[in-house]
Amino acid sequence: MSNKRTLILDKKQIHQKSIRIAYQILEDNFEEKSIVLVGIADRGYIFATRLQHILQEIAPDKTFELLKVTIAKTKRSLEASIDGPIETATNKVIILIDDVLNSGRTLAYGLGMFLDVPLKKMRTAVLIDRSHHQFPLFSDYYGLKLSTILKEHVEVVLEEVDKEEDAAWLS
After folding, report:
1. Section 117-143 average pLDDT
2. Quick check: is 167 in a domain?
3. Residue 137 has pLDDT above 50, yes or no
4. Comparing 152 with 10, which gets the higher pLDDT?
5. What DSSP character marks residue 136?
6. Mean pLDDT within 107-116
7. Mean pLDDT of 148-161
8. Does residue 161 fall inside a structural domain?
9. CA 113 vs CA 76, 82, 125, 144, 168: distances in Å
10. Is 54 in contact with 26 (CB distance < 8 Å)?
11. Mean pLDDT of 68-89
């Protein structure tokens, strides 16, 4: 793997993409009074928190609940937990959120948490969609769709986790 890193999104661009995704979520769900944002720990949850703040600013008449799903990403079977009552999502629109969509496994595991919950609809939001889907899951809302080769790696740096300025890198 190369040591060369290429900046694909800087802090300002990540913020702009987040605002655009928030507006898309609102447009797609304009009739809903309450939407549940489900962030996949760690970076997906931080991204979901940021989207929640933006959504609350632009649509103060709506409620945006936030849940965090923690997934054992290295396991071959679903091992996950949620930080609140799963019934929060009952008969509501939920947006499953992560930072990068690569194979779709993480989103598939996140979806698995809600298989027994009656939902109005489920959508997915990611900052970067790499288009290497091994599972039939696709991003409904995305900041950047990026064609990469399998050997390349996309790294999203978020201030809250990495103590560095927001950025997305391709290496």
Report:
1. 91
2. no
3. yes
4. 10
5. S
6. 91
7. 91
8. no
9. 15, 8, 17, 26, 28
10. no
11. 85
Rounded CA gap, 12 and 73, in Å? 29
3-class secondary structure per residue, the chain:
CCCCCEEEEEHHHHHHHHHHHHHHHHHHCCCCCEEEEEEECCHHHHHHHHHHHHHHHHCCCCEEEEEEEEECCCCCCCCEEECCCHHHHCCCEEEEEEEEECCCHHHHHHHHCCCCCCCCEEEEEEEEECCCCCCCCCCCEEEEECCCCCCCCEEEECHHHHCCCCEEEEC
Residues paired with residue 93 on neighbouring β-strands, in sequence order: 35, 121
DSSP, collapsed to helix, strand or coil, labels residue 160 as helix
Residue type, 47: F
Considering only 33-37, 66-70, 150-154, which range has the smallest mean pLDDT? 150-154
Long-range residue pairs from 10-13, CB within 8 A, at least 24 positions apart, any chain: 10/166, 10/167, 11/165, 11/166, 11/167
CATH number, domain at 28?
A: 3.40.50.2020
Q: Is residue 100 part of a domain?
A: yes
User: At residue 140, what is the residue type?
Assistant: D
Assigned domain for 154 exists: no
Cα 144 off chain centre by:
12
**Token output for 16:** 């702009």
Instruction: Determine the structural domain holding residue 100 and report its residue range.
Output: 11-147
Domain count, the chain: 1
